[in-house]
C-alpha cells in the first residue's frame, strides 16, 4: 500500500478527479466549508434517510452527479475528531472500498471532524497505518485467499498549510505500517513454518535489506552463554532454539542503546504441564513479542532516528517429550540464580530471564521486554490495552505516552514487592509460578529479579497481540507503541555540538 498526501482543499473536492473519494463527516454541521456539490449531496442523503452521520455508518455512491470522483464514500466519525476516531472511520471506509474496482482512493477529513481545525501529523500517521491494516491479507499457507485488492494507493487530502506536518506523519505511519505488517505476517504463520530457525532467517534478511547487524546463536552458542533456563524450555523439542540479536546504530558508538527483548515461543503446548486442547492452535501466536521486535527494528531502520537500538529474541518451542523439563526440576539461570520449574507452562519467563541477563552487556539506557506472558493479563485488561509493568516512573510515562500517540495503548499495572513473595521455593532461589491470584503481576515480579542493572519495563501483550474468533489473526501490536517510544527517545537526545552552537549564533 502506497500512502501519500496531496494539497486539495475541502472547498474544491467536488472537482477532484480520482477513482474514489472517501470523505469523513462528523456532527450536525457536517457540510461546513465543504465543496457545495458534495455538501448538497450529503445533506440530501441525510434528509432522505439514506445516510446518518453516526460513527460506524458508511455509504458508497457510484458516479455521483456533479462530482468528479468516480466513486464517493461517505463515512461518519465521532465528532471528537481524535486520530483514533478518524482512524476507525477510515478503516470502515476503506473496507467498503476494498472489494470494488478502485486502485486509488483520496481521503478527506471534513472541518467538523478535525479536533484542532488543522490536520496534524498524527492524522497522516493514523491514515497510513489504517490503510495498511485494511490492505493486509494472509496468504502464505492459503494462496486461495481472496485476490489482493486492486486498491493499492491512498492519498490524504490536506490544505497547503498542513502539508509539511501531514507528510511527516504519513512517512512515520508508512514505516510503522511496514513493521506492523511484518509482525502480523510472521505471527500468523503456523508453528511448523515459523520455527525458531525461520525467525533467525527472517532476522538475517532484515539485516541484509535494512543495514542492521544481526547475530543468530544456535544451541551450542546458547549453552556457552550458560542460559540454563532458556535451554530447559528448549530441551523438549526436536526444533533447535535460536537466540537472535539485531542492532541498529543511529547514534554514536558509545551511546547506551534502547534494548527490546521479545518472547519467541513458536509454539506453546505447555510442555509436561500440558494445556487443554481447546484453542491450543492459538499458541502459535506465542512468538508475537519476537515478531514485534522484528517489526519495530524494520520500522526504526526505515525512519533512521538518532538513537541506538538492540533487538533481542529468544526463540524455541515448548513441547512435552521424554527429554522435556519436568515439574520440580531445578535449573541454573545465566544470572546464577536457581529456579524450581513448578509449572512447565510458565515458560515465557524462563526464556526471558536469561535474555534479560544477556542484555546487561549493552549497558542499556532502557530495556523493554515484550511477551504474550500470561492468561491472567487477558483477564485483567481484556483486549484493549497491553499490560505495562515498570519500576521506573519516567520510563513508564514514556511508554504510556508512546502507546497513546500510536493508538496502541498500554495500561500500567502494580508491581509492589509483596507480590513477589508468591514466588518462594523450598528447593531453589525462586519458583517459576506464584498462585492464580495476580498471575500477570507475579510473572512480572519473576522477571524483575533479572533486571536490577538497568531501567526496565515489561509489556504483557497476551490480550492484544492477536484476535480470536471470526477475525482470527495477529494484530502487529505493539510495533506502533515501540516505534513511537524509540523515536521519542531519539528526539530527547541532546543536540549535536554543531547544532547546539547554532542558537547562540542566531541570537540577535
Ligand atoms: N503463552 C502463555 C500465556 C497465554 C495464555 C497467552 C493464553 C495468551 C492466551 C504462557 O506461556 C502461559 O502458559 N502462561 C500460564 C502461566 C501459568 C502456568 C502461571 C498461564 O497464563 O496460564
Ligand atoms: Mn505457557
Ligand atoms: Zn507461552
Furnish the topology, listing elements before pairings.
Layout: E1 2-7, E2 21-25, H1 36-47, E3 58-62, E4 71-76, H2 83-97, E5 104-109, H3 121-135, E6 153-158, H4 163-188, H5 196-210, E7 213-217, H6 219-225, H7 228-234, E8 242-249, E9 258-268, H8 288-303, E10 308-318, E11 329-332, E12 338-341, H9 348-358, E13 366-371, H10 375-381, E14 386-390, H11 393-406, E15 410-412, E16 430-431, H12 439-448, E17 456-460, E18 466-467, E19 473-474, H13 479-492, H14 497-506
Parallel strand pairs: 1-6, 2-4, 2-5, 5-6, 9-10, 9-13, 12-16, 13-17, 14-15
Antiparallel strand pairs: 3-4, 7-8, 8-10, 11-12, 14-17, 18-19
Helix pairs in contact: 2-3, 3-4, 4-8, 5-8, 7-9, 8-13, 9-12, 11-13
The structure holds ligand BES, manganese (II) ion and zinc ion.
Manganese (II) ion is lined by residues 268, 270, 318, 345, 347.
Descriptive overview:
By secondary structure, the chain is an alpha/beta fold. 35% of the residues lie in helices and 20% in strands. It has 14 helices and 19 strands. The strands form four sheets. Strands 7-8-10-9-13-17-14-15 form an eight-stranded mixed beta sheet, sandwiched between helices. Helix 11 links the parallel strand 14 and strand 15. The longest helix has 26 residues. The two termini are 47 Å apart. The C terminus is likely disordered. The site of zinc ion has 5 residues, from strand 9.
Short description:
By secondary structure, the chain is α/β, with parallel strands linked by helices.
